[in-house]
Fold these 2 entries.
Entry 1:
Amino acid sequence: MAFSKFTGTDNYLVSPELGDSVNVAVALERPLLIRGEPGTGKTVLAEAIGESLVMEVLTWNIKSTSKAQEGLYVYDTVERLNDARFGDRDISDVRRYIKYGPLGRSFLSQERVVLLIDEIDKADLEFPNDLLHELDQMSFTVHETGESHTARQRPVVVITSNNEKELPDAFLRRCVFHYIAFPGRELMEEIVRVHHPTIEEEMVRQVLLRFYWLRDLPQLRKRPSTSELIDWIAALVRGGIEPETLVTEIPFLGVLLKRERDIEVAERAIAGRAN
Amino acid sequence: MFTDFFFHLRGYGLNVSLTEWLSLMKALATGHSRADLTVFYNLARSLLVKRETDFDLYDRAFASFFRELEDEVHIDEEVMAWLEDPRLPEISKEDLARLEALDFDELRRRFEKTLEEQDERHDGGNRWIGTGGTSPFGHRGTHPSGVRIGGEGGARSAVQVASERRFRNLRSDRILDTRQIGLALRRLRRLARDSGPEELDLDLTIDQSARNGGEIDLVFSPPRRNRIQLLLLMDVGGSMDPHVEVCEQLFSAAHAAQHFKHFEFRFFHNCVYERLYTDISRWKGEPTSEVLARLDPTWSVLFVGDAWMGPWELTRAGGAIDYYHSNSDSGLSWLKRIRERCASSVWLNPEPERIWDAPTIEMIRHLFPMYELTIDGLTEAVDVLRGARPNRPLLVA
């Protein structure tokens, strides 16, 4: 078996740890469960894997109402009824009314694909358990037609979670788990350069200094994330802010902090530092 | 030896299953560790540890296991040799017996003991982290791709990385933020089908009708609602001042929780007496008896306080701490009244359990089950309130 295939892409930097986790999951054909602070690039990871391993990415966005069954297929009874009453289509073939969901399509695909199950913790507590059998066996049966499908190529399954709910142990045992830690200063510098290749050295230094200072304020309720940092830099560049300005003030604070209380906390801290 | 590592992890309280262990063996057998202990550290973690809150435990277990090996001669070569030619360990009959005989309470106790010892050693100095970079694993410490795993320069061994305990802050026995408290509170629900009027279930109706060949088939079902009614009673001022932040977080999370049938909060100072207050400065309030009269046994009561006071403040009439306040009934008798009215009541204490040695804490623990105000403690308290865990105060000795 060949290893170390996934090492990130030009636009997506991975730590070696994360690269290893991805490769283990791919080789063992286990789902890869990704957790981490918001804005650490959990969702984008699947895209990056797809790009790097040249596979199509199918995304299943989980909502609080999602059911495991929908991922496999939905029998569109309403459309069939409509056709029966008002349409002139042939309704005798039930198969035409079976709509495959992302999970179902990932099994049916001729090529090996990446399946992203995004924010699995949004769904009902029982949801992950309902998926266990399908993810283990990679096969399912369409009850309406009696047809069974088995994955031709076991998809690379990436599951993200924001930890809104505890996931069941039986489910966790089957996954490879990776926690994306918040990037340290060095990795962050690289990330910033990927998004803002032309930015000057001094600006990066000042920006990161301020950013981590802000994140370390203990009273913050919601600490700014990577994506907010990227947006903030864009705002600074467009606003023509000079690096020296950042020594004494933090312009466009609202891009980094979204809660009024956090902004007050930060402003007080900035004023305190200036004195 | 690697089977020992499995038992070592379990001894630290990590609930590693055999399935997970076998996946690790499979990954090793296919060459995933690349004979590198740092890679092994990550690999084993990704397959054996499924919660970031357990990463700190894993780090400590890993560091102690491989530290011990360092003291033995040539053991590093054995590790490397094994990593270069890994074979599935045979789980012997004795090991299987050991596995089945594991008593989890015993494990928990052993783990807690280890935890205490190691916290001391860690704070004490250098016994934990290898000295002077002479670790046999050190030369392998950097990643082959040249990217460093940890912070500053220099080759770092997996043991050193593990010894840093970078995931300390993720442990669930430390309070983190409002959201986590909110999550713990969200578990506080007792869903029940209301006996009230049934509602039309539109989705089921459409589905049924379509399956029925178009004959309309109306489906009704009673709505499900959370029946929990919660009264939050918080101690403010005095010895509670150092805990103001965590109390504030708990308060705002409880206040923001949308899923209670009713939610009320009152403040008190040191102990509950004949008045409860609606503001922190304790100006506005109402008689405790009136609050009690509104409660019925379906309410849950959550106390937050350090329960630390002079014994007279709790047991004597007239013992209240504020000098202008003379209570005719003792604080303890008020607490008893609340407990009798609402058996579903628990006490959260922001002080760590190891310093719960004041006599008043003891007395209050004979009335209410008491938990630490941490994510773990809150989760246990919530389980008591929702009836998933026995509601037992300390037995009187």
Entry 2:
Amino acid sequence: MVNSGNPQHLVVIGGGMVAQRLVEALRARDDAGRYHVTVFAEEPRAPYDRVGLTRWFDEGPEGIALGDPALWADPLVTLHTDRKIESIDRAAKTVTDRLGHVHRYGELVLATGSSAAMPPIPGNDLPGVFVYRTIDDVAALRGWVEEKRRSYPEGKPVRGAVIGGGLLGLEAAGALTALDAQATVIEFGTHLMGVQVDLGGGHALKRLINGKGIGVRAETATSQMKPHRRTGHVGRLDFADGGRLDVDVVVVATGVRPRDELGRAAGLPIGERGGVVVDLTCRTEDPHVWAVGEVACIEGRCLGLVAPGNTMAEVVVDRLLGGLAEFPGADTATKLKLSGVDVASFGDAHARTEDAVEVVWADPVAGVYKKLVLSDDARTLLGGVFVGDAGPYASLRPMLGAELPGDDPSAFLLPEGGGSAPGLELPDDANVCSCNSVSAGTIRGAVTEHQCTDVPGVKACTRAGTTCGACLPLVKKLVDTELERAGIEVSTALCEHFEMSRAQLFDAVRVADLHSFSDIVARFGSGTTADGAAATAKGRGCDICKPVVASVLASLGNGHILAGEQSTLQDTNDHMLANLQKDGTYSVVPRMPGGEVTPEGLIVVGEVARDFGLYTKITGGQRIDMFGARVEQLPDIWRRLVDAGFESGHAYGKSLRTVKSCVGSTWCRYGVQDSVGMAVELELRYRGLRSPHKLKMGVSGCARECAEARGKDVGVIATDKGWNIYVGGNGGQTPRHAKLLAEDLTSQELLRTIDRFLMYYVRTADRLQRTAPWIEEVDGGLDGVREVIMEDSLGICADLDAAMARHVENYEDEWKAVLEDPEKLRRFSSFVNAPNDADPSLAYVTERGQRRPATSAERASGVVIAGPKLEVRA
Amino acid sequence: MSVNELAETRVAGEPTAPSRWERACLLTDLFPERGAAALFGDVQVALFRLPDDAAYGGHAGRVYAVQNLDPFSAANVMSRGIVGTRGGEPTVAAPVYKQVFSLATGACLVLADKTPKDDLPADLVTYPVEVRDGVIHVGLP
């Protein structure tokens, strides 16, 4: 139903994670466009993943980006950043922002979240005392630590303390460690993470945290923070037990306080411990004012976790659209990795249920503590705590409140291989993804009813696993089971001719040392009999497997791609060494390494384009593309380009395209390294390397990143100490930002790292799989890739290095080789019985001073001004 | 002497009686498993020579001719497609959007989620081919 009237105006105060969820849910469900939503954020940025704040150090703002940025471009969504709301007038139904602008609302949602609480410890206002809540907090903390380090002699550590041993405190301690500062956690209670974890778990956690070099002082009250005598900065913590700790920086993480001041001033009821009181529909006393997330006091308390906040957002959206949803109660299950330590808890972790039974498995040596809380008959699962190994969490948490199968619940806690836990068959209503409230039934439905056949498909369809990702192993298990049940075989076969995946075929060809398609299909094609003899009906390949075999042969170094039988495997782009366009002509791209070109080179390109009537355009990869070349023209065009010193740009290949660069330190006032020089070196090193998909690289001369290197498969960014390398970025249909692989490499180390990264990708990626999804599929993800290529965990680095050395050594310009070989040149004729006749069906019109193919309508109406032979000159 | 050299008449696809036979090229002008276009007036034909490979079964060593016009892009490019087999049938894949056609019958076997451009028929027209004394002749309507 399409709403004929104007959309109602929904105003959301607050730009945090829950506000983002609310807008996402509204745009996903409000098909009729009943609401226009305006979000007022106090911070000067779009919502980000506050839970993952520590990632900001490694990955920058992109590392904690939340959701699809396109959300904020939706015409029914307006986001005002850096625009705090100062007051609400409920009678007039308006809000006033910090600039004094008044905005009307039909419905109002308070999503103001919390602020970090500052306990009344004397000295808490000294310079060097921080809270840990926003990007600005984290940035200020980093600035402080770096400043302190600079002021110290080399080697003297920056000493940090964190007051508060809860979830946030441990995050902050991790952040200090990431900044190379010492960290000591001061906890008032008996143990770390007292809300989520019991005493036994707390002890295990302490040992593990100590193992990461972080100190822990439990049962310690801080009585004051003392300034340093000379600097006046915070310098010492004094404890109630008489102990002291010298410090350079203090992070206070003792809790949060709901930001309920707007609600208070507007006369809305406030909970005993703060928070705007709402009912189970998340509505306040005012029927047009709602509250969600940490500011909402629901069932008598405020909840400081994102999952219940998201649930509230979904409830409000449902209600706004006329639904009857109610808050189902808080799921306080938590799973996180703190400084590399797995911690998870759910349900009644402290066994407060009457007569509850606890089953504990602890291995202090390995630093593992696991506990199940069960009903008095030891059958119904009431809760659990996992420290050091959260493996069982994903499958057990959804069983909360259900009977566990089997006789021995301890089987679920034993390490893998130490016993076999009975298979868990989740009930359909079991909540698998608590962030997005997705049940096992919904995930099964995605396979059975919506024809999803893999985890990415199910994620897109159900949103399961799209927030924190902790449930993904379980989602995968459910999807696999359901596919199996539905009789859907997840085949990795390339096509009917090869049952292998590309990676398997690559290995097979390499190990068997085969060099032709005929040999490969005879040996490995499907239909091969058990003894390896050729079966009769195995076919001769197709448009899917032939280019794959061509790419494998090229990557393994088998001479020119048009040599002998190899030429029959090439897609038309590789066969003509040019890019096929919609009218059957081709485009030509000479290589311009690093985007560098001489004036003489530009003149030659211009003359060639003019003389052959080619349409010219600058590509996204810093070079020039010339369109409209006919097959019989290609050798003449290339003869002139090669004579002028150009070579193939491989724009047609699944291979290295360009290495984009900024101008770097040679000209730029800010550049710290020679990015153009590095880009040229990389482009010349990897030119012609055939790969599963096209490859792009970028080199930026400083952190300003003008080459947009993080949008490339391999991005290199100069630092004052060397080069940072990022991998797995791409533009296109599914844009990805590259992730940091290694920092401050020398030029030599950089080349070696890229050599191995590319060769590992070339050997193991699937057909047409770009680097980003490939990295996701490598065992262990980016960490797994790092282990293989930087720590040589598979022992293949020498082999990868040798393979790349062979590639570099054997490179030849494909076009030059064609021009020197009459047999290869014979392929470039328009008609076998009229080799130099132009295709008479080509037709062009002029637009903006250049020619372009005529459309069907233009052909029909006869406005075409030029046939193939008439070359248009500007 | 290969199978191709036999003076025997080889007819591909539906046997429509040709009104004229045109000389296209020598058999050896064609690269096995790689097409070539031929121009007869305003008719463009794509020629394909299959190798003497058992995988092509009864089609091994034959020459096939189909229209050069790709119905899905309306560009004259069929001769530049990849040759192969689907379930034993010799095929060519359109180089623009990768539809797959039978070389023997011209039938479109794989649509690849596309519809033909400008209401063109999805199947290719086939032309009879004769190899006489090493010269390829194409029968035109």
